[in-house]
Amino acid sequence: MPMEFHVTVDFNDDLWFAKGRWDESRLREFVRWHARQGIAAIHWIDNGGKAEGYYAPGTWIDALAPASYFFELVPEPLEVVCDEARKLGLRVFSVLKAFDLAIGPPWGSYLPSEQPGVPGIPHVGGVGAGFHWVRDHAECRSELHPKLRHQPRGGPLRTIRLWHENAAAPGAWELWISEDNRTYRRYEGPQTVVNGVRARRTPLFAPAPEERFAEAADCAFVEFGGLDLDAPYVALSVQGESALANTLAGIAELEDAAGAVPFTFGLGPVRRHGQTPDWKTRGIAFDAAYGTPVPGRGWTMEWSGGRTRIEAGKTGWIGFARGRNAHLAGLLEPACPEVRAFVRGRAEHALALGCVGVDLRVTSHTESLDWENYGFNAPVLQAFRARHGVDPATQPFDRGAWRRLRGEFFTQMLREVSGAVRARGGRMLAHLHDLFDRPPEKEALHHMHFDWRAWLAERLLDGGSMNSFAFREPYYAECIRLCRDHGAEPIMTVPMHSADDAAWKAYGFELIDRAGQDGFAAFNIYESAAVMHLEGDGFVETTPSLWSKVRERARP
């Protein structure tokens, strides 16, 4: 059979990039437009409808486009898409994002005072938009290690100390404070600033419950002492130039009258559509990885900031918020049976609306500087103790065994969703990401071992969406072979979200041809908003060369 063309729709972006107002008639024409190009299936990313709360009025999502206006008119857009697609012979798959059900935190968050009456997902420094279910079941999100869950006592800060990695002078710094993480002002209270050099055993990054320190060495510091500082948000900015650099594990200490205070780093400003990022007037994105040397930020991030050397002097400032996020914003923990039931329910809901199947996606927009210290929900701890006789809450433990266990819970979730989908006559797909191609002993996406080979061997999948991969052998060839051996159609899903027409000509066409040569069942264009958009009363091709090729290949 000839290779089909599919398209992924992340309707957030279609709303944002529109130069006209969406309504039901335009949504139906959106489906018809793709049918005319030769698209055989739509992969609709499940952000829910009006009832789920992701598009609540006034949130960060709605600030970029009239989303709330549209969802008043069309409370369940996926139902409309499925209805129109059925008339045209198109298939619709729901892309379930089990780990991506919150959007905005921490870099696009807002304050409760700015959006009164809008429920959201609170986190250090702000509130983010997301599914009501995720907000209401915080205990089902990926949880901080028990050793780190203690919160600040509430007394005023007395000392803030920045440490340089050697004995060179760290320069002059200035103290700023904020009560709401939106407007920062200079601290005018009592303070004594001391620059000096002291022998120190620098803390080394070690995931809880372990602690590690380097050998003693002379390190320079700048210390703000004698403080009487109640504000929950603090920032230090450099005056002039500074050589200050260190790892996040060793760069700072905050103390109150009783000793060390737990805190969260902020290394970049909150970003808002149409506004110039400025931490002093827009706020700080706490526990966000962007703007740091952390490799693979965002949904492909693998490493924690504790391993990262931060050149704070070059950045010019560094932020601190008291306390830590007890749970990551949008990352659900599949070890929780409630999570598996919720995701299964989303799959059943999609089929009831008219989808022919679901596509389980594993990546996430959630960011953190400390991935290794999350994923310690009660069911994970209980299962690990029962299997290995070790308590990860209090004893050093095998990280590879922990990642494997968490991955087994994900496989169990996939097994349950697949059973529910097939029982209703649907097709089960899942993303097969090349980040899976590593043993559990190594750091991994979300610190889970995604055992994709077992999924295929157990025949849990009817199709595998090869997503964000490189032509890296032997993984690429093995993935195609195992899909075929176990009855799962391979689908090439290559994100080219920002690609223009020239990029599609230079690289995208090669991918399309390669997919055809290697026997893929479909080439999935990622995503609709990058290759066409609503303008006025119609739709405009932003990558005309791509659409010419699709029409040529789809209807030779």
Please provide a written account of the structure.
The protein is an alpha/beta fold. An 8-stranded parallel barrel has the order 1-2-3-24-25-26-27-28, surrounded by 5 helices. Strands 10-9-15-22-19-20 form a 6-stranded antiparallel sheet. Helix 14 (501-517) links the parallel strand 27 and strand 28. The chain is globular.
Summarize this structure briefly.
The chain has 556 residues and is α/β, with parallel strands linked by helices.
Helix-strand layout with pairing:
Layout: E1 4-9, H1 11-16, H2 24-37, E2 41-45, H3 60-63, H4 67-73, H5 77-88, E3 91-97, E4 102-103, E5 121-123, E6 126-130, H6 132-136, E7 141-143, E8 157-163, E9 172-178, E10 185-186, E11 192-200, E12 203-204, E13 212-213, E14 217-225, E15 233-239, E16 246-247, E17 252-256, E18 259-260, E19 263-269, H7 279-282, E20 284-286, E21 309-310, H8 312-315, E22 317-322, E23 327-332, H9 337-353, E24 357-361, H10 378-388, H11 399-423, E25 427-433, H12 452-457, E26 463-467, H13 475-485, E27 489-495, H14 501-517, E28 522-526, H15 528-531, E29 532-535, E30 538-541, H16 544-554
Parallel strand pairs: 1-2, 1-28, 2-3, 3-24, 24-25, 25-26, 26-27, 27-28
Antiparallel strand pairs: 4-6, 5-6, 7-23, 8-14, 8-17, 9-10, 9-15, 11-14, 12-13, 15-22, 16-21, 17-18, 19-20, 19-22, 29-30
Helix pairs in contact: 2-5, 9-11, 14-16
